[in-house]
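lol ok so funny story. i was supposed to be doing the assay writeup but got distracted and ended up predicting the structure for this chain instead. priorities right. anyway since i did it might as well share w the group, maybe its usefull for someone
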Amino acid sequence: MSMREESERPGPGEDYNPGPPTRPRQAATVILLRGGEEDLEVLLVRRTPKARFMGGVWVFPGGAVDAEEGEGDEAHRAAAVRELQEEAAIELVQPEGLVKFSRWITPAAVQIRFDTHFFLACLPEGQEARIDGEECVDLGWFRPAGALEAFQAGELPLVFPTIKHLEQLGGFSSVQELLAYARGREVEPVEPRVVLEGEVARILLPGDPGY
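and the output, tada:
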């Protein structure tokens, strides 16, 4: 099976929902970067295989917004900072410094849904990523193309949103180039669709034939 065929199928925790759509829960994710003007690497963490949702999958650090974090952009930034500290032991002291990159809404046909805001952030000087060994059991710094190659080789389990973000990130040669691009664009929400073809569910993005 090719990487394209695999990436078009729902991943772990993305079970099909034949009933009324579930309301998506607000969430935030941080794409942590290192490389400056010379390179571009991103941090991925591996969720414990024991997790009921996305078990064993490599993801960008992130999670759901807590009720006490409020609503809107400020809440998403607060959740992003908290999740990065909890999952990778990285402390960002200025949530307003996060750079908006994308917003993905889980397809209506999936049981567990999130409205996830993705932010870019640079690895703070003097800090190193660490995992707790419980919720997250491994971590790694990857060039986007390298992560996709490892996925294709069956060495790095990924899910559709992570794959698509890595594909987009692979178009940039350095952190500074990526940040310059992200700071100058308007973020529009992306809500993929699930299309059933017999017993196989494929995920389509806006602009794909049949969306």
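Residues 1-7 have pLDDT under 50 and may be disordered. The beta strands are 25-34, 41-47, 58-59, 62-64, 99-105, 114-122, 136-142, 189-190, 193-197, 200-204.
back to the writeup now i swear
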